[in-house]
Amino acid sequence: DAGVIQSPRHEVTEMGQEVTLRCKPISGHDYLFWYRQTMMRGLELLIYFNNNVPIDDSGMPEDRFSAKMPNASFSTLKIQPSEPRDSAVYFCASSFGSTGSQPQHFGDGTRLSIL
Amino acid sequence: AQSVAQPEDQVNVAEGNPLTVKCTYSVSGNPYLFWYVQYPNRGLQFLLKYITGDNLVKGSYGFEAEFNKSQTSFHLKKPSALVSDSALYFCALNNDMRFGAGTRLTVKP
Fold it and tell me: Which tens digit of pLDDT belongs to each residue from B13-30?
């Protein structure tokens, strides 16, 4: 079974540009999570969805960030406009069932560099 | 407030020796505690979890963890470390998807 697939794996762009990160969760999973990993702040939960509906977006840093899940097999995280401090590795993860008792399956991340 | 802490940034052990990676937590209610491992340029991989039941939990690759309610700890252990165990390890409080800062484990031959 294919794992969580993220694209692109690497993205380098200039400040002010729009950035779109993509995620395909594991088929059948009903929870999807977006995380950001930096040396300074570690791994931070940005937003998560249940059955395509956003449940908690309190971790989204500011209005420049938005996430959508139009169907069960696809999600996007957008940053517009991007800033150098957005440089990080962004992970998508999915799980099945309760958020508490089930493990999350992570993609290999998108390494984002904003110049 | 709920929290999870990994008090050691780095742990160094010799191959063949036992290893311990520490994790402490604070939660209202019952904790859902997980350990994950991250290799370079990869996502986190699930190792084991404690939800309820036996305090000693066994997981992948020979790892185990002991849940201690009185000490609010969930330390990761392995009886005999391998060089290939070298990686970044994260403890997670899954009640609110909160991760510790990570501990870098280095196993030297």
Answer: 999 999 999 999 999 888
